[in-house]
Amino acid sequence: MSIPSYQSTEAHSSPSARTARTGQSRLKERFRARSAPLIHQLHWLPIDWQIRFKLATLTYKALQTSRPPYLSDFIQFHTTPKSTCSSSTQLLFVPRHNLSFGSRAFRVSATNVWNTLPLHIRQSQSLSTFRRHLKTHYFQLTYPVT
Fold this sequence. Notes:
The chain is built from six helices and no strands. It is mostly helical and 146 residues long.
């Protein structure tokens, strides 16, 4: 009994298929290399940093306004039994997770992003100030000055 060609793994590993994938990856690399200066000039963040920006902004809103309630229920400040110097750092409790996709849940990823922010950003008085400082911080991390 023969396997239909559309189910065969050999069709996916043929030299022409590998060449096509290699060509596509080279094209993507050239596009990224050409578009990087434009993205920098437009003051845009790369996609992964945009995701962090959105998570941090949602976390800030949930902490400051308790809105939306379905997100603010997931966020808790980290508490220690004794009073320490670090008790005023506004760190959030990061829940434990067992599986790798558990780290992508809002309650885990948002608290991880929040806890990596500098204290002066976490203590911003308004949303506009928070967003301005956060974007500047992320832009400096993404495009370091040489």
